[in-house]
């Protein structure tokens, strides 16, 4: 992932956000809302691009943002929603107020998939692993048998 061309045209700040920048962004959005993200940096007095402001607000500064570990209920809801929606993280996040799609995706890939496998559940199909492995083996055996007959 590279920077957008708008970041090169102007002399915009990159990297870590300072507490002063966070304060400017919070004050602006609290008072006026975000509107068009590309106009927010200029209106808020920031030397950042709109995308940077949007991501900072959504992932770190929103007042309704939940921090910390996920509860067992949240994890179970993520598993249930994943079984229905698949990897549609933003749709799953919409059902978990205060959680971002990115942190849900990271939790899924770092923890929940492993937990499901340990319980004997395939994290892709949400079926028992033995059933999934049997179906996969049958498909593979069928293909191998077919190849053998043709030789």
Automatic annotation (TrEMBL):
Source organism of this protein record? Dioscorea cayennensis subsp. rotundata (White Guinea yam)
Q: Where in the cell is it found?
A: Nucleus
What is any one of the record's Gene Ontology cellular component terms?
Answer: nucleus
Return the InterPro entries for the record.
Homeodomain-like_sf (IPR009057), Myb_dom (IPR017930), Plant_SW-associated_TFs (IPR051953), SANT/Myb (IPR001005)
Myb-like domain residues are 9-61, 62-112
Which CDD domains does the record cross-reference, listed alphabetically? SANT (cd00167)
Give the Gene3D superfamilies listed for this entry: Homeodomain-like (1.10.10.60)
Which key words tag this protein in UniProt?
A: DNA-binding, Nucleus, Repeat, Transcription, Transcription regulation
Which stretches are tagged as biased composition: Basic and acidic residues?
A: 124-144
GO MF annotations in UniProt: DNA binding
HTH myb-type domain span: 9-65, 66-116
Q: Can you say what this protein is called?
A: Transcription factor MYB61-like
UniProt KW Nucleus keyword: yes
Q: Where is this region: Disordered?
A: 122-151
């Amino acid at each position: 992932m590279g920077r957008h061309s708008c970041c090169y045209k102007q002399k915009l700040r990159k990297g870590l956000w300072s507490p002063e920048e966070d304060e400017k962004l919070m004050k602006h959005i609290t008072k006026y809302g975000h509107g068009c993200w590309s106009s927010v940096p200029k209106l808020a007095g920031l030397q950042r691009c709109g995308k940077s402001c949007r991501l900072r607000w959504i992932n770190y500064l929103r007042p309704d943002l939940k921090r910390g570990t996920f509860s067992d209920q949240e994890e179970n809801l993520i598993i249930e929603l994943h079984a229905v929606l698949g990897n549609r993280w933003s749709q799953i996040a919409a059902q978990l107020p205060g959680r971002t799609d990115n942190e849900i995706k990271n939790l899924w890939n770092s923890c929940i998939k492993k937990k499901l496998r340990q319980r004997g559940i395939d994290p892709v199909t949400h079926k028992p692993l033995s059933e999934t492995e049997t179906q996969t083996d049958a498909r593979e055996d069928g293909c191998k048998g077919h190849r053998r007959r043709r030789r």
